[in-house]
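The data are passed on as follows:
___
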Amino acid sequence: MLRLALFLTVSLLCLPYLSSAQIDQALSDRTQISSISDTSIVSEIDTSVIPTSDSLSDILSDSLATMARDTTLTTAEGGSSSQPVAAIKYTADNISYSFNDSTLELSGHAEFQYGNIKLKAGRIKYHTYSEMITADFLPDTTGFPSGANTEPALIDPQGTLVGERMQYHLPSQQGRILRGRTKYDQGVFEGQELRVDNEQTLRINLGSYSTCNNPDHQHYYLKVKKIKVIPDDKAIVKNVVAYVYNVPVFYLPFYVFPLKRGRRSGFTTLNYGSGEAQGTYFRNLGYYWAASDYWDFKVTTDIESKKGFLLRPEFNYAKDRRLRGSIRGSYQSEFGLKTTGWDFFATHWQQLQPDFTISGQAQFAQSLKFVQSTTRGVDPGQLQSSLRSTFTANKRWGQNSLNLSVSESSPDGKPIRPTSTLGFRFGTRPIFKPPQIRRINSMPDFSERSNEPEESAWYHSVLFGFSNNIRDQRSSDTTTTQTLTNNFNLSSQQNLFGWLKIQPQSTYSETWNLKTDEGFDRKNQYTMGIAANTTLYALFQPKIGRLAAIRHVVTPRVSLTQSGPKTDARRANFSLNNIIQARTEHDDQEKKYNLLYVTLSSSYNFKATTRPLSDLTTRIRAPGQRFEINATLTHDFYDPTTIAFRKPWLERGDLNTSINLLGSSSSRSGSSSYSRYSGRSSTGSGYDRYDQGFDQVKGPWTLKLAHRYSVLRSKPDANFSTASHILSATSRFNMKTLTDVLHVSNPLTNNWRVQHNFNYDYRRREIVAHSFDFYRTLHCWEFQVRWTRNGFNKGIYFRLNIIAHPEIKIEQERRSSG
């Protein structure tokens, strides 16, 4: 009955195209039409598209869309009357129906829609009995308007699949495309034959893949015998040959491209290159497993012809912002399996309770030299003097805390006995508090009780706190020291006359030491003192342009301290702080700036027999977002020969200036593409010493200049000598911007970006560090060269990679062993 209703509906819709005789004949033959054999209906159809018990279950469907049209039929999805009814809508310049094979033919601007599946072509044939659709070009465009012979295209909400000829079976949602192509993300898959199924998989035979959109000539492509694409998951390719300008450059028997966004499991992408120290190498060969949202695992291998194997496992975990950590390491061996180096690094942080956390770091290695030799790029690890491991546990109770710390610092990378410290801190707080702000667990209130509200009295600002710790330290194989230290502090801040601040304070420290072969030792130290300071203001209102006012803030401070008995001293300290501020007004907007800081400080030791007055130190700072000046001047009050008091003379001067200019973020589409494939796991933390930092050149234009200059002399009448004179510069810019300013722009330099790092010791006439990075895009490629003229990374590195897939690259590295 369903077929009869479908036939009658199609027949009525096609009445304008049929004569009355044809209509009569159709009605009389309706029973015969219903019983036409499958063979007569699909005589022009590839029957392999119709699903069997061994249907296409391993392929990727790419793209299909939705639309609404004039003419509508209804049928059950999947060919079952129990399924929801889906509408069939179609339109064309010419519509005809053949009763011989139950075929509806749409010609010229043909469009056919079934549910969310939409098909466009020059010609579409719909076999109503088998529900098979065939789409191709018009064999003859005579009599059709311009543009009627459109290319066959299968569309869904995710994209489009096009080809020369298509067949699609509606109930099973399986199809076949000849000489088809589809776009996925930034790349295009093409093939002689594409097959799709209802599980959103696509299989391509004799295909290719490229992200190059050059219409005349592709700069590169991957030629593949078979491709299987699973949307938002991965693409599996077999027998891959990479071509650059139609020249084959490498072959892989199979490979897996990850297509998921964010974290996804899959094979890591292989890097190939060569260097003087490493020879020919393959790097980053391995697998990344995104097991869950809480942990992942990655293991990769580097194979270098001159060094052997380098295995690098990495495990990362994180959960609910209360737990995170990573475990990683490396193991290197020669091809004969002789171990040449290893290292281990782990971090962990966990919040056991809101006020209780633990954290730790463990770092060991066969040797520190191995860690340094396997570091790539400019990395602080090259300058490490030791490998450090720590563990801490911290518990808080309001202002109080208990802390356990275990740490070790190994100069050779091997484990040593750690130093352990257990400490307790009683936070500094008022001894006496007004009743309205008293809290539980605070210090007891010894003041008299009163039913009336209590105002703040002088004793409410008296503060007390203490801390203690126990330390166990092993300085050698036979020497161990245990130390118990207690620290107490008492202080207060009082205001006199409304303008003078008085701060009495005292501290006491008691230390007990128990050292192997030396026995028990007790030491104590106290410090008592009082400080006074005030603040003075001077205001000038010049009203010059936008400048509304200038304010000078002066803060003199004097303190007296007495300490003993170990370091018996009585000292007076004095300082004078100056701040120059400005206020501007424009369009009813007010802005304030700190223009200049000047601080002078010195001290006087009453118990010193010689040179009781210390040097006068003057610090000057002019802050700014782009330009900053720092200067330090040291004046001596004594003659260096006779030690006689005299007028101050300049003994030393230090001047540091810096310029930091930073442009807006680059608008280049590929400027951030490589960072997505940096190889760091999303749950991991810490510095990757294998990252060479090549992405910096893609950042916004930058100009950083720094100048450090120090002079000194030994006596007042001597000439100044240069103690230090360092010039450093970092610049990053687009050549087109520079050449446009100089009016010398040309096509050879327009697309180049350059980064230059320079560090020069003027006193020694020596270049400390010097490197160049050159970068440019070549349509779908990006090209980069780094030239490091000196240092541990001295050499030249070359890389050419695809912008859309920066992990697909060719690289060459040449390092000097000197």
Observations:
- The chain is about 5% helix and 55% strand.
- The radius of gyration is 40 Å.
- The chain has a mean pLDDT of 79.
